[in-house]
Amino acid sequence: MRDFLGRLAARRRFGVRPGLGTMRALCAALGNPERELAAIHVAGTNGKGSVTAICEAALRTMGLRVGRYTSPHLVRVNERFVLDGREATDTELAGALDEVEAACAREGLEPTFFEALTACAFVLFRRAGVRLAVLEVGMGGRWDATNVIEAPLASVITHVALDHCAVLGETLEAIAGEKAGIVKAGRPVVVGAMDARARATIAARAAELGAPFHDAAEEIRVAVSRRTIHGQTLRCESPLGAYPAALTRLAGTYQVENAATALCALERLGEQGLPVPPKAFAEALRTVSWPGRCQLISESPPTFLDGGHNPDALRALREALKSMHIRRRVALVCGFCADKAVGEALREIAPLVSAAWAVPLTNPRGLAPEALAAELAAAGIAAAIAMPSVEEGVEAATAWAEDNQGTVLICGSLFLVGEVLALREGLGAIDPSEALRAP
Q1: What is the separation, in whole angstroms, between the first and last Cα of the chain?
Q2: Reported confidence tier of residue 432, pLDDT bands at 50, 70, 90
Q3: Are 189 and 165 in contact (CB under 8 A)?
Q4: Given CA atoms 288, 292, 295, 297 in this order, what sign does their dihedral have?
Q5: How far is CA 76 from CA 8, 79, 295, 422, in A?
Q6: DSSP-assigned letter for residue 34
Q7: Do 6 and 101 contact (CB within 8 A), yes or no?
Q8: Which of 436, 334, 350 shows the shortest CA–CA distance to 390?
Q9: 103: left (phi > 0), else alpha (psi -120 to 50), else beta?
Q10: Are 227 and 204 in contact (CB under 8 A)?
């Protein structure tokens, strides 16, 4: 596995390149394994991972062989590749990369890190005999490596917000336009709840391509009958009928929107001869897991882990905590990448926070704890302390919460989420970033 990680990490030198020319050439050199897939293709700023996970769980619950490809990983690169409900093994990953590299050598191709990963996913699915998959876009949509999929079962775009602005654009319309790049002629498009400007941009692209347009917020009704720190009970209804109530571990008000989006996407499959039974969707909600999204990792004191790192995500997280009657005495542990709108994001969560600890990330893009503590103070959190490590920050916040009958919230970068999960698994503070340094 060390060799696999090293070879893959070396592809970081090719950076991020616009265009699908290299990816299409690589797929052709591999015999176009992506054309063997019937796929749900999911883009968006916030929520796309949860929607991907729900869709995959529902299809698997039906007894179908299904693959899932997501990014980024939190602790191990294997997390990105799921085959029939299990992560790909080290041996399977190494074998897939061997095949990808052999094709590159034959054709003189130099794919980027993410292009190589995506090609590995297609190869893994073919080798495992998987012909149905749910694919999450890495960033944007139009030039994302996953966008070589030509005729998806459905193109899904979740909540659009300002993020990765240097690459995707400075306005919601510009970012939505990049996400709408996954829309394909004549293929159904599903959008989640989003700003009217983003919705209009995607709807216009769908109309241009003759793609049937479905707004999940209009077509799906989701009622919440019970909500606790352990999850929430959802009952969904659509024009096709009612679905059984299900207690899901996906906590937070925003997961109501994600459940609606996933259901709307799955109902499009029924129009193509693959109906999803109501019981299968309810079972998917009951069993689905998506770490690092308002995840309860400890009950005493209550401790939540969330990868929200932009203002929209932190606003949704604040509302999620309030819906669980957590309105004060929050001990915040946070770590952010310096290229994010950190101050604006912190102002969204600040009303709930009584004390905060700024921690470093094992990533060169990480904001130094001292600078982050200053951002916390500027956001109105006066009791902000810079800590030398994630572990010490979590320990200090936990002690404070125990003394003050409070709640611990660990949030910010997904790199931070990965470090916390690694610490909980006894792996040490490994680097879960795309640099892929082997532990």
Answers
A1: 10
A2: very low
A3: no
A4: positive
A5: 13, 6, 18, 9
A6: G
A7: no
A8: 334
A9: alpha
A10: no
- Which tens digit of pLDDT belongs to each residue from 37-96? 999 999 998 899 999 999 999 999 999 999 999 998 999 999 999 999 999 999 999 999
pLDDT tens by residue, 293-311: 899 999 999 999 999 888 9
Phi, psi of 233 (to 5 degrees): -100, 120
pTM for the model:
0.89
d(CA 210, CA 252): 35
Task: Classify strands 189-191 and 154-157 as parallel, antiparallel or unpaired.
Answer: parallel
DSSP string for residues in 215-274: EHHHH-EEEEEEEETTEEEEEEEETTEE---EEES--STHHHHHHHHHHHHHHHHHTTT-
Q: In the predicted model, is pLDDT for residue 438 greater than 90?
A: no
Contact partners, residue 269, CB within 8 Å, separation at least 6: 40, 153, 154, 275, 276
Closest listed residue to residue 255, CA positions, set 43, 42, 54: 54
Assess whether pLDDT exceeds 90 at residue 226. no
Quote the CA–CA distance of 172 and 99 in Å, as a whole number.
39
Q: Which pair of structure tokens corresponds to residue 90?
A: 């080290």
pLDDT tens-place string over residues 19-41: 899 999 999 999 999 999 999 99
Q: Is the distance from CB of 70 to CB of 80 less than 8 angstroms? A: yes
What's the whole-number average pLDDT of the chain? 91
